[in-house]
Design goal:
single chain, 295 residues, alpha/beta, 5-stranded parallel β-sheet, 4-stranded mixed β-sheet
């Protein structure tokens, strides 16, 4: 279990299949009890009370139930899936134990939505979320000004949230800043310094400012289309989790819940075609994804 979510946590969709085959083979060869069959090893969570492997949705309790709110926009609706519950669980464990986190994955895997939903609704009052995002034009100075504006002075030369609180700094599109002539991304290097050295230099006085009680959570897409590779000096300071693309079962679960609730007021004959609409939409999407690749 620990191996899956440490060494195996960085695997993308295709690599997870290979990791699953290797781990099952290794456990069988060495006489260890294996995982249940039918799904990847990533799809099971250890029930700490019974010591048995369970599927994530079965282990989630009330969190696995979808409650439709007609007042929310479509993009704000969150349908519990094994991916969402699993990813939220991992984020929660890391943040509560003060580990800095880097979430990586292709567009559409719910990185931003999952993190924002967690920070807004699942954290105790002692955690104060600070949310921002990087763009190609973001500078280190802009990043510094944003963080400085939120800090309280705790004592001479030491800054952070008010006593008893912890900042959870969420930075979306972390790898978007453009690379300068020496190969660095200044805003990324500033965050690296904040984590690795515990602060930064004041832009006016050049005095060192120690920054305490901050946890950094970042998310980014794969380095294509304007997104750049992150320096290894930054990655070594972070716990990295890859958000894999949802399988068709999870996609169907999301859209059948939302569309099914939307079509309830209509004639029952309309509601009965919900599954057909979703299957047809998935087919069109998969065809486009395979044939119209990004340029």
């Amino acid at each position: 279990y620990a191996l899956i979510w440490s060494a195996g946590a960085t695997c993308d969709t295709n690599s997870r299949i290979l990791f699953d085959l290797w781990l099952r083979s290794y456990m069988e060869t060495n006489g260890h009890a294996g995982f249940p069959t039918g799904q990847l090893v990533y799809d099971f969570v250890l029930n700490e009370a019974t010591g048995n492997w369970e599927e994530w949705l079965d282990n989630a309790g009330e969190a696995s139930h979808f409650h439709f709110n007609p007042d929310l926009n479509f993009a704000e609706l969150v349908v519990p899936t094994k991916d969402g519950i699993r990813n939220t669980f991992l984020i929660d464990r890391l943040v509560r134990n003060s580990y800095n986190l880097m979430v990586v994955g292709p567009t559409g895997t719910g990185k931003t939505l999952t993190i924002e939903e967690y920070l807004k609704k699942s954290m105790e009052s002692k955690y104060v979320p600070l949310m921002t995002s990087f763009s190609a034009q973001t500078t280190a100075f802009q990043c510094m000004v944003f963080l400085d504006s939120k800090m309280d002075k705790r004592k001479k030369g030491v800054y952070g949230p008010s006593a008893g609180k912890k900042f959870v700094v969420f930075i979306d599109d972390f790898n978007m800043p453009k690379v300068e002539e020496y190969g660095a991304q200044p805003p990324v290097e500033m965050i690296r310094q904040a984590i690795g050295l515990g602060g930064w230099y004041d832009a006016e006085t050049l005095a060192w400012k120690s920054v305490i009680d901050c946890i950094y959570v970042t998310s980014m897409g794969n380095p294509t289309g304007g997104r750049n590779p992150i320096t290894s000096r930054m990655k070594r300071l972070m716990s990295i989790i890859s958000f894999a693309e949802m399988d068709e079962a999870s996609q169907q679960q999301i859209f059948s819940n939302i569309l099914g609730q939307f079509l309830k007021p209509f004639d029952p004959s309309i509601g009965r075609i919900t599954d057909n609409i979703i299957v047809a939409t998935q087919s069109v999407y998969n065809t486009i994804s395979e044939g119209l690749l990004p340029t």
